[in-house]
Specification:
Shape: globular
Largest sheet: 8 strands, mixed
CATH class: Alpha Beta
Number of domains: 1
Strand content: 5-15%
Order of helices and strands: EEEHHEHHEEHHHHHEE
Distance between the termini: 11 Å
Radius of gyration: 18 Å
Number of strands: 8
Number of helices: 9
Helix content: 25-40%
Structural class: alpha/beta
Length: about 280
């Protein structure tokens, strides 16, 4: 039976939507994108391989882990083996920078991919809820080593440095809509939007090289912009980030990811040589 991996680009507040992506791991083939949602609610209403109406707007809500897992089981017949989340997580309350935040920043700040500083307010309550819900659902928090066969685990991820490794970039990819005014400040607004779409589409292609079915579910950013859906590019960004989280979970499953941090909290990222066939498959689930 194939393994399944759930990726969640978790918003730090309840009013912002969180992207969700479900991958199926297949023997002797690339993983396949099974279902996608630009928000928790949209994923809960999704069907396998169903297309999204990208003209519509989605809203945020508190994370409903049990409902998400139930939906995954309905779509695939089983619960996901791995849940990979882009949000600071820890068994203890968040209150400032953690060793894992500093470790990732030390490794990637020269390439523009340092981490944000978590606090008790943001994303404190959301992080606590996610951690407790996943533990209650029977998932084990993993911060080091290889997961046991048939274990169900959850891990923390961070898309920015993962995208650097995926696309073999010298610097962080400029694809965040909220930072558009900080990108290419010398250019006119129209040019900045076109460049942003170019980068979003470059990320989409890089993920499509790794994951089957992605191009059927996620449209070109340039086409969204051309069709007057500029406001929906943030939703596209969230969906891509969710897929990146699931892809990092896949590298963890292959034994080709490494943790930054310690036993209390770790951020898992693809190893710089994740494409090497010499790497040991340390995490077979």
């Amino acid at each position: 039976m194939p393994a399944h991996i759930l990726g969640i680009d978790a918003a730090w507040t309840a009013h912002q939507p969180s992207g969700v992506a479900l991958l199926r791991v297949r023997k002797n083939a690339k993983p396949e994108l099974i279902a996608l949602g630009r928000s928790y609610d949209e994923f809960l209403g999704s069907e396998a391989h169903a297309e999204i109406d990208w003209r519509t707007r989605v809203r945020g809500c508190l994370p409903p882990i049990d409902a998400l897992l139930t939906r995954c089981k309905k779509l695939t017949g089983e619960l996901p083996q791995i849940v990979a989340l882009d949000i600071p997580l820890a068994a203890k309350p968040l209150n400032g920078r953690r060793p894992c935040d500093n470790a990732v920043t030390s490794a990637y700040v020269s390439r523009g991919a340092g981490t944000h500083t978590p606090s008790a307010l943001r994303p404190g309550p959301i992080s606590k809820s996610l951690f407790q819900q996943l533990c209650k659902a029977g998932y084990e928090w993993y911060t080091h080593g290889a997961a046991k066969r048939a274990a169900r685990v959850f891990i923390e991820t961070y898309p920015h440095p993962a995208i650097i490794e995926l696309m073999q970039l010298r610097m962080r990819l400029a694809y965040k809509t909220s930072r558009l005014s900080q990108y290419w400040s010398e250019a006119k607004s129209r040019t900045r939007w076109l460049r942003l779409c170019k980068n979003l589409d470059a990320l989409r292609r890089a993920l499509a090289d790794e994951i089957d079915g992605l191009e059927n579910l996620i449209p070109s950013a340039k086409i969204l912009l051309k069709n007057g859906n500029k406001a929906r590019l943030k939703h596209l960004e969230d969906a891509l980030d969710a897929v990146v989280c699931a892809w990092i979970g896949y590298q963890f499953w292959r034994g080709r990811a490494r943790p930054y941090g310690n036993q209390e909290a770790a951020i898992w990222l693809p190893a710089p040589d994740f494409r090497s066939k010499k790497l040991v498959m340390a995490s077979k689930i």
